[in-house]
Design a protein that fits this description.
Elements: E1 8-12, E2 17-18, E3 21-22, H1 24-36, E4 41-43, H2 56-70, E5 77-79, H3 85-98, E6 102-106, H4 115-128, E7 133-137, H5 139-142, H6 148-155, E8 160-165, H7 172-180, E9 185-188, H8 194-199, E10 204-207, H9 214-226, H10 229-245, H11 253-261, H12 278-290
Length: 295
């Protein structure tokens, strides 16, 4: 491989709603703002995008709207995962047809496949849809952990190009690098540990925090790539309370509230998620002030 396909600050996009429906203008304005702020790629229809409560039609519409804005500016990595292999294939096919540059496929949740089942799930998607695939390993939500050995087996498939690693295991990127090589794209899925993740061989982060602090997140990665560790430390200190606050309740509740403070979207979620409690609002507000995002 010629190097990792993706690097730097990548935003796990929230999905704006208004009166229970997709807020399409807000979404497209939000994507362009992300690009203008230095975000290197965008990820619609992931956890932060409330994909479990999007209908298939809405899911596909969100991907298409993002591609309309981002095409030719930054890559779109569409979330197409499911605990049904056939459904993941269907969503991945649509993402390719819509013009997405890659897909992000979460480990199947709830049905708890074995390591061999995980391998066969991803291989089936790989064999049916000719598009780069980023494997999304998030044991805290899916209950299964894709082992380094299984990841190395998957990496032998030409279109499996990387992983979004939300294990918060800081030995994992080094283990993965040694098992697969430096060109396999390793993206953190855990904002609070992004700096040590990069130090252990990571290439970037698919970030929740970048929804509201895209310029700061992009600047941190740019400083890292230049070897400017003083700036990395300074920016990380500004962002760290925000990383914590945005997970004080179930995501994306806190980041939806934070985005509403910046007039980026309505503070609206879909059940079973609800808006955050007043004490969480206070925590998020304080972290936004600390980061210099609001006065």
């Amino acid at each position: 491989m010629p190097g990792p396909m993706f690097a730097g600050s990548i935003t796990a996009l929230l999905t704006p709603f208004k009166d229970g429906r997709l807020d399409e203008p807000a979404l497209q304005n939000f994507v362009q703002w992300q690009i203008d702020q230095g975000t290197k790629a965008v990820v619609p229809c992931g956890t932060t995008g409330e994909s479990p409560t999007l209908s298939h039609e809405e899911d596909m519409r969100v991907t298409r709207l993002c591609v309309e804005v981002a095409a030719g500016q930054v890559p779109v990595i569409a979330g197409t995962g499911s605990n049904s292999t056939e459904e993941a294939i269907s969503l991945s096919r649509h993402a390719k047809e819509a013009g997405a540059d890659a897909v992000l496929v979460v480990a199947p949740y709830y049905n708890k496949p074995t390591q061999d089942g995980l391998y066969r799930h991803y291989k089936a998607i790989h064999d049916e849809v000719d598009i780069p695939i980023v494997v999304y390993n998030i044991p805290c939500r899916s209950i299964v952990d894709i082992s380094v050995e299984t990841m190395a087996r998957l990496a032998e498939l030409p279109n499996i190009i990387g992983v979004k690693d939300a294990t918060a295991d800081l030995a994992r990127p080094a283990d993965t690098r040694l098992a697969i090589g430096p060109d396999f794209c390793q993206l953190s899925g855990e904002d609070a540990t992004v700096v040590p993740f990069l130090a252990q061989g990571g290439h970037g982060c698919i970030s929740v925090t970048a929804n509201v602090a895209p310029r700061l997140c992009a600047s941190l990665h740019e400083a890292w790539q230049k070897g400017d560790l003083a700036s990395v430390s300074q920016i990380n200190d500004r962002l760290f309370p925000l990383h914590r606050a945005l997970f004080a309740e179930s995501s994306p509740g806190p980041v939806k509230y934070a985005a509403s403070l910046l007039k980026l979207c309505q503070n609206e979620l879909r059940l079973p998620l609800v808006t955050v409690k007043p004490e969480t609002e206070k925590l998020v507000y304080g972290a936004m002030v600390h980061a210099g995002l609001i006065n």
